[in-house]
């Protein structure tokens, strides 16, 4: 059973059970979510009908009397009378409609609110069966935009973390080597070597304030998520964060970070290789703070970045992987199956990677075989993305069979040849591969996908390995119960906030505290420090916003493509906008409207 089905069941149960504040019986001609009800005058033979505002007693405590002369369902016009309701419910035969009069003793405000709370909580826990979210599957391809694979003739790929998936053991080696570089080349204190790699500390998509030395998680609206700001390995209190940022959690990323998230003041860590870099950044800060050593966070940031860069520039990472392909490369047989499937259907394939040919060649031979180049119509190495997609300066150079550069001018891109550098503008001119008939796969939202979608109209597919972990969490019964109750409690608070007396305010303080605890519990199921890479509390993360903007489809690994035929159409779910949503989860759980009655809103004053 899906969460939507659970919510619908909750709503029906709330309407059918004897809730102390049930919704009004509705005339068949009244919209179920409207805050007004139409009172019809005349007959059904074309007479004009009048439309008059009505108020509900939904939020009056049980037993509380109406004002003298006030009807429980009060119409704005005193002259027009509501027609008598049928004894049968709309569309229901043989069932007498419920009566909502009560002879119960008046209830104090606190007891009334807690009764609503307990009734709702009991329903949530009773009606969510185990396995409510089991339909989630990490092998699914998710769509941000409609994509018809029948229209795609050309498939392009990045190499690292796209064609080749790497094990987590690689992150440990990157961290340890860069940490040692800090000591040996940048003369950092030897004691930093006592800090081991923390594999579950950081998540992809975090931002780093270079001048303040803070690692943080930011949402799609450029607001810091409270409780996710770390100086070193220690979280900062929210009060200190507000003080550092001038009394707000907002960070002006457009001026501090730039389009590609590279600074000058704030950097976003977007690729999977950046996880050990974030950990080393936090460890180095922690060492200086713990030992009360004065330092400049800007210098530390540059030193750590250079140390991580040396791991790649000096070829350490390539050397480790080539020495033990079985240890570091995952799912090679699945990559082989994807390439065979595409080639057998007559699709054209190309590869554009920043990695050197010798490294790519050895990895592809391991995964696909000696003749791996036969699958690809064009192979480009050391492309220098993202500049490959934006600059038109560097020409293509051909490599010979030994990987050495040739000197002739490139006038065509030929199958079976290896090319270095170049630029997309020459690539488009020489191949003619343009527009939505091209689908390119990559793991880096900026370097691989952004320019292709925004400037050139290619279809794009993001590889997001974290989906495997995240879908497991979301599929757990504990997560389903916590999230549904969190949404239900939020809806209850939204509906009943019109009660502003002292007793009600005390109850709301307790509810708000529980709501914050539920949020923290839900976050910790993904990662204790930073939570999900896709959500900051109820909002999408900045990473998630970029994922939706720069990728038509996204998936955990390239092997997900094996689950679909090549004429399949991916349709994005229509997620309702706030103003058009007929029912959200909080309404389904509470059986109440999203927006309070206008008359109730007026009482808030």
TrEMBL record:
Q: Locate the region Disordered.
A: 13-95
The answer to whether keyword Transmembrane helix applies is no
| Basic and acidic residues bias spans | 45-62
Q: Which UniProt keywords apply?
A: Hydrolase, Magnesium, Metal-binding
Read off the InterPro entries from this record. HAD-like_sf (IPR036412), HAD-SF_hydro_IG_5-nucl (IPR008380), HAD_sf (IPR023214)
Gene3D superfamilies, per the entry: HAD superfamily/HAD-like
Tell whether Metal-binding is among the UniProt keywords: yes
User: What Pfam families does the entry give?
Assistant: 5_nucleotid
Give the compositionally biased regions (Polar residues).
Answer: 13-24
Recorded GO MF terms: 5'-nucleotidase activity; metal ion binding
Task: Provide the family line.
Answer: Belongs to the 5'(3')-deoxyribonucleotidase family.
> What name is this protein filed under?
5'-nucleotidase domain containing 2
């Amino acid at each position: 059973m899906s969460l939507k089905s659970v919510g619908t069941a909750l709503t029906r149960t709330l309407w059918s059970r004897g809730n102390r504040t049930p919704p009004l019986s509705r005339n068949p001609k009244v919209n179920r979510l409207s805050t007004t009800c139409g009172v019809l005058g005349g007959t059904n033979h074309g007479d004009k009908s009048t439309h008059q505002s009505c108020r509900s007693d939904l939020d009056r405590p049980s037993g509380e009397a109406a004002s003298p002369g006030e009807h429980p369902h009060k119409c704005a016009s005193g002259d027009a009378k509501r027609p008598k309701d049928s004894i049968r419910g709309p569309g229901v035969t043989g069932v007498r409609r419920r009566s909502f009069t009560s002879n119960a003793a008046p209830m104090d405000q606190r007891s009334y609110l807690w009764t609503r709370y307990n009734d709702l909580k009991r329903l949530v826990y009773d009606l969510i069966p185990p396995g409510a979210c089991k339909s989630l599957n990490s092998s699914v391809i998710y769509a941000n935009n409609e994509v018809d694979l029948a229209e795609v003739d050309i498939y392009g790929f990045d190499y690292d973390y796209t064609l080749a998936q790497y094990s987590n053991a690689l992150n440990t080696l990157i961290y340890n080597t860069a940490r040692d570089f800090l000591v040996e080349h940048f003369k950092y204190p030897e004691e930093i070597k006592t800090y081991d790699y923390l594999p579950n500390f950081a998540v992809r998509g975090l931002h780093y304030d270079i001048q303040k030395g803070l690692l943080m998680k930011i949402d799609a609206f450029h607001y810091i998520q409270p409780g996710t700001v770390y100086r070193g390995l220690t979280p900062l209190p929210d009060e200190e964060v507000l003080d550092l940022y001038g009394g707000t959690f907002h960070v002006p990323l457009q001026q501090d970070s730039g389009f590609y998230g590279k600074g000058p003041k704030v950097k976003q860590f977007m690729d999977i290789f950046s996880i050990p870099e974030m950990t080393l950044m936090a460890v180095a800060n922690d060492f200086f703070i713990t030992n009360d050593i004065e330092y400049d966070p800007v210098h530390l940031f540059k030193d750590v970045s250079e140390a991580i860069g040396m791991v790649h520039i000096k070829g350490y990472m390539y050397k480790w992987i080539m020495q033990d392909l079985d240890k570091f490369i995952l799912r090679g047989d699945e990559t082989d199956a994807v390439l065979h499937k595409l080639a057998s259907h007559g699709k054209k394939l190309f590869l554009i990677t920043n990695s050197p040919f010798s490294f790519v060649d050895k990895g592809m031979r391991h995964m696909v075989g000696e003749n791996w180049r036969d699958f690809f119509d064009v192979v480009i190495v050391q492309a220098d993305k993202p500049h490959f997609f934006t600059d038109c300066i560097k020409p293509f150079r051909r490599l010979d069979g030994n990987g050495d550069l040739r000197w002739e001018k490139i006038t065509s891109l030929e199958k079976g040849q290896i090319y270095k550098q170049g630029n997309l503008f020459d690539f488009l001119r020489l191949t003619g591969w343009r527009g939505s008939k091209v689908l390119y796969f990559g793991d880096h939202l900026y370097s691989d996908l952004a320019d292709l979608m925004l400037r050139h109209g290619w279809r794009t597919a993001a590889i997001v390995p974290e989906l495997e972990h995240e879908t497991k969490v979301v599929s757990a019964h504990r997560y389903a119960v916590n999230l549904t109750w969190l949404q239900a409690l939020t809806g209850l608070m939204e509906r009943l906030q019109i009660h502003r007396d002292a007793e009600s305010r005390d109850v709301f303080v307790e509810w708000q505290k529980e709501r914050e605890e539920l949020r923290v519990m839900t976050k910790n199921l993904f990662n204790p420090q930073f939570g999900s890479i896709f959500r900051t509390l109820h909002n999408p993360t900045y990473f998630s916003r970029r994922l939706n903007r720069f990728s038509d489809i996204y998936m955990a690994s390239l092997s997900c493509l094996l689950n679909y035929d090549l004429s399949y159409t991916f349709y994005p779910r229509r997620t309702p906008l706030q103003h058009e949503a007929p029912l959200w989860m909080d309404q389904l759980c509470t059986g109440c409207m999203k927006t309070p009655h206008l008359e109730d809103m007026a009482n808030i004053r």
